[in-house]
Amino acid sequence: MKLKIAVLPGDGIGPEIMEQGVAVMDAVASKFGHEVTYKEALCGAHAIDELGDPFPEETYEVCRDADAVLFAAVGDPKFDNDPTAKVRPEQGLLAMRKKLGLFANIRPVQTFKCLVHKSPLKADLVDGADFVCIRELTGGMYFGEKYQDNDKAYDTNYYTRPEVERILKVGFEYARRRNRHLTVVDKANVLASSRLWRQIAKEMEPQYPDVDVDYMFVDNASMRMIAEPKFFDVMVTENTFGDILTDEGSCISGSMGLLPSASTGESTPVFEPVHGSWPQAKGQNIANPLAQILSVAMMLEHFDLKDEGALIRRAVDASLDNNVRTPEIQVEGGAAYGTKEVGAWIVDYIRK
Ligand code: GGG
Q1: Which end of the chain is more exposed for a tag (fewer CB within 10 A), N or C?
Q2: Which residues are annotated as a binding site for Mg(2+)?
Q3: pTM of the entire structure?
Q4: Which domains does the chain have, with CATH numbers?
């Protein structure tokens, strides 16, 4: 297969984990005889510094013309600490999603058997937890009308019927491919936007008689994820709730550095770790590359390259089982591996 990949390393630890993601992609491509070409483009704080725009037109064109985008992370504290900043790196991520029409963000949350003790939750609660959060990605508060002055500010949680229908359809269909259990997460006791979501989901239910649907307020869902993560199979929710709940999901897996994602919709799909740019760790070779590497596996699986994806997953499992781990998940007393060393170990495993 020929694949054209747009590579957007972004900020902070982004370039370091991206290097490992691309190395793994190259190893898989040469093993299976695929021809992969890469085109790198600017996004986030680097793009603001160089071109004054966190998602410049040139970057959009590179993404639009690619088969897939491999994205790392954006964010830089110099913008967080400047309340007068007119543009922020994160706007680059939002602009990319909006311009590419990527309304469905698939975020799997699963546990690795050898890491259950790394979760702050009890091992028997998390062992075997495996669910997917489908996060709506181009609507809601992140994109609704905003206003801020010195005395007041608001963000509008705006959703239209077609936006809600298309993401719920993804949720129902995803549940069909798994264990046929869909949880619609909302705040319908308070928010009008959530009541619309719930109404539309109930209207759609008869089209999916084989899927068990339940409705859960987001506050209850966030508690249930901790108290009984194995309850969930597929959850579908709006943009803001999905962003927050999937960070909570990292407590189930044991590290933010383990959660990959896929964003799909109207054009080129994007594959990226759930985590951000962790600027404090930049250049220290301590960031976990596994979320980036697992995002490569999701990318290959998206193109139906199942054996290739499975090989990456086996390599990741083997690295963890052999204690080839970055500091945040290393066993007590074990020597931590660096970002590069974990990536190199996985590349060697794939080449064998
Ligand atoms: N790789 C994800 C990333 O860079 N996250 C930073 C961020 O701003 N996230 C907000 C969001 O995902 O909506």
Answers
A1: C
A2: 219, 243, 247
A3: 0.95
A4: 1-102+266-352 (3.40.718.10), 111-258 (3.40.718.10)
Average pLDDT, the chain: 96
ipTM above 0.85, yes or no: yes
Amino acid 88: pLDDT: 94
Question: Which has the closest alpha carbon to 41: 95, 106, 85?
Answer: 95
- 281 and 12 in contact (C-beta within 8 Å)? yes
- Chain mean position to CA 157: 21
Residue 278 has a CB neighbour count (10 Å cut-off) of 21
Amino acid identity for residue 314 in this structure: R
Question: What stretches of 70-160 show up as alpha helix (H) in DSSP?
Answer: 77-80, 89-99, 123-126
With a pLDDT cut of 90, the percent of the chain lying above it is 93
What are the angstrom distances between the C-alpha of 29 and each of 8, 300, 302, 312? 19, 10, 15, 11
Our answer on whether the CB atom of 18 is closer than 6 Å to any ligand 1 atom is: no
- Which tens digits make up the pLDDT trace of 183-209? 999 999 999 999 999 999 999 999 999
